[in-house]
Amino acid sequence: MATDRTHEHHHAGEGIDPRAGVLALESLNALDGYELADGEPDIRGWRLRATDGAEVGTVHDLLVDTGAMKVRYLDVELDDRRDRHVLVPIELAQLQDDAEVVRVPDRSAAELSRLPTYDHGVLTREREQELLGYFGR
């Protein structure tokens, strides 16, 4: 996924890691020194299409698990309301390279629009479990 790990999260002298229970997810837009692996398309800016064919938004960013060096979520800006973003697990995405479209099978436009708002804050394990519940996982 990425080619360089530029910072570590160690806190000397602390008994409890302040990031305990928090996923090590970072915005690809905000990571310096990271890039997509060779041959992987940069899908930021691509349209998101539901199973019913409706386009519901645009991929704004990718959330990277910096520990595993993998993209975990798409940060999607929905068309129904500007400034409203949702997260879609990357494993649900099907890329249609020729049309620069990301498809989400088995989810209608209405279902995707009901996803919880992603406020670009810290994604705790509890919030991730809630999100994955929307996808039946």
Describe the structure.
This protein has 137 residues and is mainly beta. It has 2 helices and 7 strands. It has helices spanning 109-113, 125-134, and strands at residues 25-27, 47-50, 55-65, 70-78, 85-89, 94-96, 101-104. Strands 1, 2, 3, 4, 5, 6 and 7 form a 7-stranded mixed sheet that branches. Strand 6 (94-96) and strand 7 form a beta hairpin. The chain is globular.
Number of strands: 7
Strand percentage, roughly? 25-35%
Major β-sheet profile: 7 strands, mixed
Overall pLDDT level? 82
SSE order in H/E notation? EEEEEEEHH
Helix-residue proportion: 10-25%
| Rg, Å, rounded | 16 Å
Gross morphology: globular
Distance between the ends: 24 Å
Class by SSE composition? mainly beta
- The poorly predicted ranges are 1-19
